[in-house]
Amino acid sequence: EIVLTQSPGTLSLSPGERATLSCRASQSVGSSYLAWYQQKPGQAPRLLIYGASSRATGIPDRFSGSGSGTDFSLTISRLEPEDFAVYYCQQYGNSPFTFGPGTKVDFK
Amino acid sequence: EVQLLESGGGLVQPGGSLRLSCAASGFTFSSYAMSWVRQAPGKGLEWVSAIIGSGGGTVYSNSVKGRFTISRDNSKNTMYLQMNSLRAEDTAVYYCAKSVSGAAYSNIDYWGQGTLVTVSS
C-alpha cells in the first residue's frame, strides 16, 4: 500500500500570500496518477488537480500542481478568502487508492 | 447536472450489517467507475472501495476487505456498499463518488453529500 505524507499539517497564511503544499509517496505513483482535493467544513471534497498537474474544470488558474514519482506539490499563487480549507492528495495508480492526511490552510 | 444521492446510513451495533445505496443521475452511469470514500468524525478522507463501469472489477482498502462488498445495478443507476461485521472504527460519513472514466484507476470528479454510519452499542 502506498502511504502518502502531506506537509505541513497546518499552513497559516494571509490572503494574497502564496501557499505551497507538499505530498510525498512511500513509493512511485504510476503515471503521475495523483489528484488534489479541497474540502471545506460541512462540505464534500472538490477536485482541483488530476494527473499531478491538470486543473479540473472550473478551477481558477491560481491553483497549480506539479511533481512526479514520489514528490508532488500544490501551489496556490495568491490566496483568496475562499481558499482557506483542508487539502488532500490522493494516488489512484496503485490499489488501494490512498489519501494523504491533509493540510489545513488557515488564517494567520 | 451530475447528482449522487447516498442513503441507508444510520445507527448499527458492533458486528451488525448495513447496506448503503447511491442513486446517480445526470450522466451515463454504466460508463463510469464509482467509489466509496469515508471520513470519520473530525478526521481525514479514507478511500474504501471502487467498482468499474461494467461492474466486472472491484478493489478494496485493506481495512474493509472481506467485510464490505461493493456492487452496482446499471439498470437502476445505483451503486451499493454492503457492510458486514461492522466495527466502531467504521463510524464515518460515507461518500459516493464518480470517477472520470470507466476504469478503476481513474480519479474522482464528483462527490455526493454523504451518509452517516454510526457503529455503537
Strand content of chain B: over 45%
Strand count, sense and barrel status of the largest sheet of chain B are:
7 strands, mixed
Which of globular, elongated, flat, extended, rod-shaped describes the shape of chain B?
globular
Give the number of DSSP strands of chain A.
10
Oligomer: heterodimer
Largest interface, C-beta within 8 A = A-B, 25 and 24 residues
Round the Cα radius of gyration of chain B to an integer and report it: 13 Å
Classify the beta-strand content of chain A into a percent band: over 45%
Question: Helices and strands of chain B, in N-to-C order?
Answer: EEEEEEEEEEE
The helicity of chain B comes to: under 10%
Task: Describe it.
The complex is a heterodimer of chains A (108) and B (121). Chain A is mainly beta and 108 residues long. Chain A has strands spanning 4-7, 10-13, 19-25, 34-39, 46-50, 54-55, 63-68, 71-76, 86-91, 103-107. In chain A, the strands form two sheets. A six-stranded mixed sheet of chain A has the order 2-10-9-4-5-6, with no helix packed on it. A four-stranded antiparallel sheet of chain A has the order 1-3-8-7, with no helix packed on it. Chain A is globular, with a radius of gyration of 13 Å. By secondary structure, chain B is mostly beta strands. In chain B, 0% of the residues lie in helices and 50% in strands. In chain B, the strands form two sheets. In chain B, strands 2, 4, 5, 6, 9, 10 and 11 form a seven-stranded mixed sheet that branches. A four-stranded antiparallel sheet of chain B has the order 1-3-8-7, with no helix packed on it. The radius of gyration of chain B is 13 Å and the shape is globular. The model of chain B has no long low-confidence stretch (mean pLDDT 96). Chains A and B meet through strand 4, strand 5 and strand 9 of A and strand 5 and strand 10 of B.
